[in-house]
């Protein structure tokens, strides 16, 4: 019984620390994030944080999953019957999170060059949910088609990942990034 109570307490503590860390990651980004600064802000020891999250990378992966869960909640809450609008919503939300189109174009939340690799290998349920969302949109756009919806969804996601990665390498004007992504993707798809 005592172990179960301790496990539950650690789970609650981990969730609270993760939310605080998310705010800190949002402010400082990956490169500038220091466990010691987070510990000071949370008024706890570095050891306590490392007991809950084995490393900065583990904490960062938990942060990414947390952000993706929020992202998915937004998609679900705003999903319409128009699949193209839903794809635009997907891109808008994704680009806002990772490029911060409207907030501050000089500050990116994700400045980790291995971000997409870490995300793809996370094998977390939230990644599957995002793909399911995209697959649903393409099935509505191309019903009764012999298109491989998983393949098309992966290409769409990877194209938007590429826009973000390109932005991280060299900043560019992002005002039309959603429109540009949609046009480039569907132009290529129609050529096929």
TrEMBL record:
Residues 11-71 form the HTH tetR-type domain. One of its GO terms (molecular function) is DNA binding. The keyword Lipoprotein does not apply. Transmembrane segments: none annotated. Gene3D superfamilies: Tetracycline Repressor, domain 2. SUPFAM superfamilies: Homeodomain-like. The keyword DNA-binding applies. Residues 34-53 bind DNA. It comes from the Bacteria. Keywords: DNA-binding. This is Transcriptional regulator, TetR/AcrR family. It comes from Arcobacter defluvii.
